[in-house]
Amino acid sequence: MRWSRLGIRTRITGGSLLIAALISVVAGILIYSQVHRIVSDGQVAVLKNVEAPYLTALALEPAETFDPPGASQTVAVVDPFGIPQVNTLPADLASTTTDLAKSPGTRTVSVGSASYLVRVTEVRTAQGTWAVIAASANDIQQSVLNQVAILLVASIAAINLAFGGASWLIGSAVLSPVTRLRRSAEKLVRSPTRELLPVGPAHDEIAELAETLNELIEHMRESNDRERQIVSDASHEIR
Question: Fewest CB atoms within 10 Å of the CB: 13, 48, 63, 159?
């Protein structure tokens, strides 16, 4: 269907809805990106908190026995000889502890079907360079992001539907004077009288249109009156 064949109200609603959808999509992408960044930063902050006691212990007493990590904390402490002194990493990740210790930094590591955010920090001591490895499963982060994505999609859909309904109602209210003009014009066509088209109280474009049409109607009536008078005078002279 061609756009020009649609009604004005439909075009107003469709155009408004299209603009609202584009803005909503852009806003949704920006919000999702911000949430992703916040969740990632929070996950890194958790890893820093997990590794902090071991970094302090290595800086003060690297030869002492390390305390075990708290429940649900996954961390490994690797000595300068590549031997883990503490290792509570998941089994699939623990097998790569020595290799992980060689690459300091924060990165995502995939092992089989599992994915982990791993932070490796080196600590230089008199005995050599130690490595503290803290890890966190990405499934929790992905679950949060999935919930955010579902919430954004549902919110955007609801907002756009509400916006479309509001646009339809506003378009109907705006075009109601036009509907009244059309009905009045149809009434004048069916039963010609000396009445004019109604002019609304608002001084807007529709009121100006009604005034212009009334001027046209009055001009046409005057022309018709003159024509009838000429015909009447001519008939009288012929008789």
Answer: 63
- Quick one: pLDDT at residue 150? 92
- Positive or negative, the CA dihedral 88, 91, 96, 98 is positive
Q: What is the 3-state secondary structure (H, E, C) of 154-202?
A: HHHHHHHHHHHHHHHHHHHHHHHHHHHHHHHHHHHHHCCCCCCCCCCCC
How many other CB atoms sit within 10 Å of the CB of residue 123? 19
Return d(Cα 140, Cα 12) in angstroms, integer: 44
104: DSSP letter: -
* Residues of the chain scoring pLDDT < 50: none
End-to-end alpha-carbon separation of the chain, Å? Answer: 61
Give a three-class secondary structure readout of 20-52. HHHHHHHHHHHHHHHHHHHHHHHHHHHHHHHHH
Beta bridge partners of 111: 114
Provide the pLDDT for residue 76.
Answer: 92
User: What six digits make up the tokens of 114?
Assistant: 């599992």
